[in-house]
Amino acid sequence: MSPVWDDAGHLVGAARVARDITAAKCSQIALAEREAHLQSILDTVPDAMIVIDPQGVVQSFSTVAERLFGYAADEVVGRDVGVFMPTSPIASIMTATSCDPIPSESKVQV
Questions:
Q1: Percentage of residues in the chain with pLDDT exceeding 70?
Q2: CATH architecture for the domain at 19-102
Q3: Domain ranges of the chain
Q4: Is the dihedral of CA 73, 75, 81, 85 positive or negative?
Q5: Cα–Cα distance for residue pair 23/12, rounded to 1 Å
Q6: How far apart are CA 66 and CA 59, in angstroms?
Q7: Which DSSP letter does residue 61 get?
Q8: Three-class SS of residue 17?
Q9: Residue 41 φ/ψ region, left for φ over 0, alpha for ψ in the -120 to 50 degree band, beta for the rest
Q10: pTM exceeding the 0.70 threshold for the entire prediction
Q11: How does the average pLDDT of the chain come out, rounded?
Q12: How many CA atoms within 13 Å lie on the side-chain side of 71?
């Protein structure tokens, strides 16, 4: 609350600004729920899952990936995928953006 003064310096009232933050709070809750859902998938999927952004920066690292690669998620998240897969053809595939064609010599036979 802020005082309101007239030209003579007399207190004539008070002012208060209120904002409806309902939509912002709902968005925050929805985001937290989506993050929790993704984390539950990463924690329970039987395969190693690594989520990276288009620049190849690791965003998520599953518990199976931790066991497979020998790194804790907090050591890898936020770092380039090449840190723990520097020479693997999978690293070049994983760091390719959706618009970049994958060179045929980089394709991995599964």
A1: 77
A2: 2-Layer Sandwich (3.30)
A3: 19-102
A4: negative
A5: 34
A6: 14
A7: E
A8: coil
A9: alpha
A10: no
A11: 81
A12: 18
Write the pLDDT tens digit of every residue in 60-91: 888 898 998 888 999 999 998 887 776 655 55
105 burial via Cβ count (<10 Å: 0-12, 13-18, 19+): exposed
Q: Spell out a b/e string for 21-45, using b for 16 or more CB atoms within 10 Å of the CB, else e.
A: eeeeeeeeeeeeeeeeeeeeebeee
29 Rama class: left (phi>0) / alpha (psi -120 to 50) / beta: alpha
Q: What is the residue whose two structure tokens read 């064609």?
A: 101
Residues 6+ away with beta carbon under 8 Å from 62: 42, 43, 45, 47, 48, 49, 50, 73
- Residue 48 contacts residue 64 (beta carbons within 8 Å): yes
Q: Which two tokens stand for residue 6?
A: 């007239």
CA quadruple 56, 58, 64, 70: dihedral sign: positive
